[in-house]
Amino acid sequence: MLNIGIDLGGTNIVAAVVDENYNILGKSKTPTATPRSADEIFDDIAKVCREAMENANVKIEDISSIGMGTPGTVNGEGVIEFANNLGFDNVPARQMIIDRLGELPVFIENDANCAALGEAYAGCGNGSKNFVAVTLGTGVGSGIIVDGKIVTGVNFAGGECGHMVIMVDGEPCTCGRKGCWEAYASATALIRQTKAAMDADPDSVMHELAAEEGKVSGRTAFDAMRKGDISGINVVNNYIKYVACGLINLVNALQPEIICVGGGICNEGETLMKPLRRYVQAERYSIHSKLQTKIMKAQLGNDAGVIGAALLGSTK
Amino acid sequence: MLNIGIDLGGTNIVAAVVDENYNILGKSKTPTATPRSADEIFDDIAKVCREAMENANVKIEDISSIGMGTPGTVNGEGVIEFANNLGFDNVPARQMIIDRLGELPVFIENDANCAALGEAYAGCGNGSKNFVAVTLGTGVGSGIIVDGKIVTGVNFAGGECGHMVIMVDGEPCTCGRKGCWEAYASATALIRQTKAAMDADPDSVMHELAAEEGKVSGRTAFDAMRKGDISGINVVNNYIKYVACGLINLVNALQPEIICVGGGICNEGETLMKPLRRYVQAERYSIHSKLQTKIMKAQLGNDAGVIGAALLGSTK
């Protein structure tokens, strides 16, 4: 059984033909090139789908379903109700794909939810049915899987765990609240925390590191820490504590089998994952339970989105 | 179809015969009288079940299943792995009920989860399948229902939303973390906040109110607010803001149809519910969605526990 998964991003549109063992048989990609009309963008979506099928050497008749992950909120009718960074307002995505590729089952879902589904089934979850994926990127994205299905909530806007407040009256968040997890645990937040520490410590090695790289990045404080820089150590310690705080919140609320952590910061590997696991182990409510939530690093990288999107048809 | 629901509490054991329309046909109650051996407590559980059947004028042959809510963590085999306030450590609750009442289907679940199930099906949820119940009591209890089922998690310890941190490094919580929602939004926390405000304001009317009642209670600040007392107003405003913070966190993560708020503090009615709804409306992530989570007052009071327990057999 073959399915097409589409990852509609703010930067690129990716499509892939995915088989029943989650292998990608063919793939194609084109820039999203916003701002453009929805019609133009969906013409390109159809184009990359056709190219992916060509690359996989299959025909549309071989395809069982098409799934697409998109930023923003998608309702049960496959309409993208709102997607800020695509400029979409009530775009009938499902119908626009059917109009271009034919009468196939088409499923549309939020992109973070698709990535969670991909990691749960085909990535570090290895088929896990109770799973949370967290992505530490520009923001903190997340998707919740319960009983093998995405928790979309009543309005298909569920899974926004980055917008859970961990610090009442704390740092302002892009969502309008103050103190969201995202405002402390995203790569953006880490960079802000790094800059603040640099301002406070003119002797920190972080100044040299940032000059070498040409900017302050999510790596600056980690690299400084590895050089024994006190300000770098403090930034990293605090950042990991903030990330852990939200993870423990999710453990206590949902006790999933696995919480998967992804995004650029995860390139730090065990430097990040090991202390995260120690915080979770020390603070989780379920100290007396034999089974415990595993904290794992995401495995699929950018492919999580297309693989998860391709899975939408079989997990609805 | 008749089921028996049991609510095993730290203070009382209650059993009820519940019909398919969630009506209680007969009920009985006895003190838990801890500390006692599990055997003695389960003898009394069987006794109140028999009394409830007598009061309902039904026989054990008329009963389809027995469900019990208990404090603590219950595993999939119906063993209470740990329940601090009952002194239980690996008590085989399911088997102990079968030994005393016969070979019926018996289901054991955490008490907050049972109460959530009761409110979802028979209370303010009116059959809602995606539902969160929050109880503002000594602690902040909660239960999460997704697709009509309790989210127990991998280790049956799920739904502990009171132990999600809303204030990093904040007030110490009984669970060992700092800044849990429970440490700000429980009745216990409200009393602590009231006492602190009284210490800071010797002229507050709260001193008189507490003297009249013989103690500082969850009502003291609300009563002072109604008399225009500035310190009382501040305590209530801050408390409601803390309660709302956790509710909005749950909305953003799960977007349930309904979040139900129960516990003694809810006797304040719309004085509490109205500002809570305004906070949620202003801060929820899903501002563009047509459907929104409803914030409702719990309806079943103490009966939520036995009704939810009686429902366990049909929702597993």
Radius of gyration of chain A: 20 Å
Q: Between the first and last Cα atoms of chain A, what is the distance in angstroms?
A: 16 Å
Question: Which strands sit side by side, in order, in the main sheet of chain A?
Answer: 3-2-1-4-8
Largest sheet data of chain A: 5 strands, mixed
Which regions of chain A have little confidence, pLDDT < 50, spanning 5+ residues? none
The structure class of chain A reads: alpha/beta
Multimer state: homodimer
Proportion of strand residues of chain A: 15-25%
Tell the overall outline of chain A. Answer: globular
- The number of helices of chain A is 10
Number of strands of chain A: 13
Helix percentage of chain A: 25-40%
Mean pLDDT of chain A: 96
List the secondary-structure elements of chain A in sequence, H or E: EEEHEEEEHEHEEEHHHHHEHEH
What is the largest interface, and how many residues per chain?
A-B, 51 and 51 residues
Question: How would you characterize the overall build of this protein?
Answer:
- 2 copies of one chain form a homodimer.
- The first copy, chain A, has 316 residues and is an alpha/beta fold.
- Helices cover 40% and strands 22% of the residues of chain A.
- Chain A is built from 10 helices and 13 strands.
- In chain A, the strands form 3 sheets. Chain A has a 5-stranded mixed sheet with strand order 3-2-1-4-8. A 5-stranded mixed sheet of chain A has the order 11-10-9-12-13, sandwiched between helices.
- In chain A, a hairpin with a 4-residue loop joins strand 6 (80-83) and strand 7.
- The longest helix of chain A has 25 residues, at 230-254.
- Chain A starts with a strand and ends with a helix.
- The relative contact order of chain A is 0.15.
- Chains A and B meet through helix 8 of A and helix 8 of B.
